[in-house]
Amino acid sequence: MTQPTPFRGEHLRTALALAASGLPPLPLRAGKVPFGNCRRCANNACGGRPNMKTPGPCACPGPCHAWAAATTDPHVINSGPWRRAWLQAEAVAYHPGGAGLTVVDLDNADAIAWARENLPTTQVVPTTRGEHWLYLGAMQSANAVRPGVDIKSTMAYARWLGFGTGTMTALPDAVRALVVSRPATVRPASPAITATAPARGGECRHRTPVYLERGIAMAELRITGATSGVHSTVYRTFLAVLSTHGRCGCLTEAHVARLFTAAQTKGESLRHCADAWANARTRLGL
User: Is residue 286 classed exposed, middle or buried when 0-12, 13-18 and 19+ CB atoms within 10 A define those classes?
Assistant: First the structure.
């Protein structure tokens, strides 16, 4: 029998240690994205858990439903389906909101400089491109609350990169204020997709990337906020995005991946996302 590599085995040990400390972990596959729903949970057939307010798996014994599968139950984490996932995992993530935490994800040097000037000091974890600032207290998650800054707390996940340095402090009003006028969104890392974004070249008629960013963020909100008719909501949202941005060349694969990710957090399969995107393009003649 092939034995697991020490690296992959370490993921399971890390997950059990996180669970023991109160942080609900989940495995990330290649591309640093959660494992997709299994066949019986595909298309939200199991009832799903995307709208739940606390972490925990659905009736499926595997790590389905992304952040909503995160759990502190060691028996679940060490069960057969989860062990198989850990052996395939590329990294470990956790649900900050499930542990009553908020992660301010600072993606570059400018964002870090802003945080040092405007936010109280707290526990800091270095990342590949920036830093995670961890605060005690949960709140709604939001992307791009300012340049290079994302908020990861409830209904989101963050990669586990160690304990970092410093002492964690209470979530300040300055962080909460960042999303007062912003929707709660979930944006895991971009999945591998086969759909392509139309690109006609030339200067974007919108003149500014802010217009596009706002449109994509609102589209993510529309999808993740759907309480019924998810299939039709995804299609209508894709149609709206393409009708506005599909002909000017500003829509990129990264934007498409964000929309697909939002749909998948609602239980949509990758195939259904690709079909809905293709159908929307066909209807618009793209």
Answer: middle
Q: Which residue stretches of the chain are H helix?
A: 6-20, 74-77, 80-88, 109-118, 173-176, 209-224, 230-245, 253-265, 270-284
The one-letter code for the residue type at 118 is N
Residue type, 59: A
User: What is the percent of the chain with per-residue pLDDT over 90, rounded to a whole number?
Assistant: 35
- What are the structure tokens assigned to 2, written together? 């092939």
Question: Domain residue spans in the chain?
Answer: 6-94, 97-179, 209-284
Query: Encoding tokens for residue 162?
Result: 């160690």
Q: Is residue 233 a contact partner of residue 160, using CB atoms and an 8 Å limit? A: no
Q: Which residue has the higher pLDDT, 203 or 135?
A: 135
Domain 97-179, CATH = 3.30.2250.10
**Contact, 266 vs 50, CB < 8 A?**
yes
Residue pointed to by tokens 């301010």: 104
SS3 261: helix
| CB neighbour class for 193 (10 Å; exposed up to 12, middle 13-18, buried from 19) | middle
